[in-house]
Amino acid sequence: MFDKNTLRLYAVTDRAWLGGRTLASCVENAVLGGATMVQLREKNMTDEQFLDEAKVIKRITDRLNVPLIINDNVNVAIAVGADGVHVGQSDMRAVNVRERLGSGRIIGVSAHTVEEAVEAEKAGADYLGVGAVFSTSTKKDAENVSLEEMRRIAESVSIPIAAIGGISEDNAGRLAGCGLAGIAVVSCIFEKDDIFGAAKKMRVLADKL
């Protein structure tokens, strides 16, 4: 069941931070620490490799009862039985994703403006990822979205929003009052030695938004 609380602490994977650990163990610790949804993002794998990794991660998310979202790759999402797909503005359009996935799965869309947000909702998106709200090392080409624009986006749509981009323990509190359902985080969890502890801290902050 997807609702706005599902977005509270949205963990987005990045294997750059593994440091010899398995992605599976990192994801498990993130969820045990408080992550409410997981996005598997793999930009440099073949579909076969991506699917193999997705199968491993889905066993964890199923056992811990949190949704698994696949970044961009609808074929992998369908093949693994993922709970949904997240697409960016340059990826497959949400309306086409919905045609492929059907009505029972989650579609997330990246948005940076009110216009993109409204269009995504009309196209069938279930939630928006809006950012980058702060400077981020994981997407160096991302354009920052001001907190004022974030508020305008939240007011323009009825679907829930997660802020993404450079969110950390130090700046998450600045997002209070922006109309967010939650925050999507990458390095502030996965780069840490103690992923469980990092997720736990970020969940406390997310619950205060």
- Helix percent reads 25-40%
Biggest sheet: strands side by side, in what order? 1-2-3-4-5-6-7-8
Low-confidence stretches: none
Level-1 CATH class name: Alpha Beta
What's the number of extended β-strand segments? 8
Q: What count of structural domains?
A: 1
Word description of this protein:
This protein has a single domain, classed as Aldolase class I (TIM Barrel, Alpha-Beta Barrel). It is globular, with a radius of gyration of 16 Å. The model has no long low-confidence stretch (mean pLDDT 95). An eight-stranded parallel beta barrel has the order 1-2-3-4-5-6-7-8, surrounded by six helices. The two termini are 22 Å apart. The longest helix is centred in the N-terminal third of the chain and has 18 residues. Helix 5 packs parallel to helix 6. The protein has 209 residues and is an alpha/beta fold.
Summarize the structure.
This protein is an alpha/beta fold and 209 residues long. It has 8 helices and 8 strands; from the N terminus they run E-H-E-H-E-H-E-H-E-H-E-H-E-E-H-H.
What features would you highlight for this structure?
209 residues, alpha/beta, TIM Barrel
Write the layout of secondary structure elements.
Layout (H helix, E strand, L loop, with lengths): L8 E4 L10 H11 L3 E4 L6 H18 L3 E4 L2 H7 L3 E4 L6 H8 L4 E6 L2 H9 L4 E5 L15 H10 L4 E4 L17 E4 L1 H4 L4 H13 L2
Parallel strand pairs: 1-2, 1-8, 2-3, 3-4, 4-5, 5-6, 6-7, 7-8
